[in-house]
Amino acid sequence: MEQQENTYALDAENASEMARLIMQDRMITQAIGGVLPELGNQLPPDTHHLLDVGCGPGGWVLDVAFAFPDLEEVVGIDISEIMINYARARALTEEQDCAIFIQGNVLRPLDFPDGYFDLVNARFMVGFLLRDAWVPVLREIRRVTRPGGRIRLTEVDNMGVTTSPALQQQLSWMCQVIQKMGYGFSPDGRDFGMTPMLRKLLTDAGWHNIQLAPHVVDISTGTDCHFTQWQDYMVAFQMLKPLYLKHHLTTEEEFEHNYQLALAQMQQLDFQGLWYLLTAFATKPDEQE
Ligand SMILES: C[S@@+](CC[C@H](N)C(=O)[O-])C[C@H]1O[C@@H](n2cnc3c(N)ncnc32)[C@H](O)[C@@H]1O
């Protein structure tokens, strides 16, 4: 695959990134209450074929396969070879025959017939869809969804809001670099500008009946998610560092000093932090609509 066709902000073949995504997926699914919390973790009627776009190491796909053993097929597609290999190995050892993983680029036409899927999930596409790619990708997902089928998008505007000054600085560099690199829709780089856009993007791509459901993950000291998120930041910031330097947001010295401080401040007993996520659900209109 040609390099310019991979627009992921981070290195998709990096084992640390894969480990980060594995932990993050477990944390989020537990914290928000399951794979489809907005639907009471029930599948809509006549749901047999599901797709997860940018599935990473496959946590959501495998959890869905486990939760709904009668499903015909739940497909995960991701550009990363190591993530797809890992996901396939897990499907094999867990004997999840309906979980299928495909290495592919969702910026290209999807290799599925019209109307093939009943429900398509995608989480955190902000990290690889450049601004102009959103509507075409959502249209292509619409093509492979059956009339009356659904899409479920989960996005964020930052990676947390916290009481640590040093951590806030790291999170601010992250928002700025996302904006500078052409991701998200923030006018000023203060956040990702993603969640306010979901309704419009879905509407522009021809989806109907859009519903929004917020979630929050508590990452304060003493919570279940605190250590997982600490590890996530530890890995994510180091991977983002070359991008901060390239875009002149900080210097090597300032970054290293702030990085150590952020990790230490997050360990303090009075550290408080929340991470807000938004899920948008929408339906593909029936032909007569
Ligand atoms: C932020 S991760 C999210 C993974 C997963 N959806 C989750 O929430 O845990 C983004 C994923 O998209 C994948 N990705 C990046 N560009 C892609 C592309 N053009 N086509 C398919 N997958 C892509 C990356 O390899 C990575 O696994």
From TrEMBL:
Coiled coil: none annotated. This is Methyltransferase domain-containing protein. It comes from Reticulibacter mediterranei. GO terms for molecular function: methyltransferase activity. It holds the Pfam family Methyltransf_25. Residues 51-149 form the Methyltransferase domain. It comes from the Bacteria.
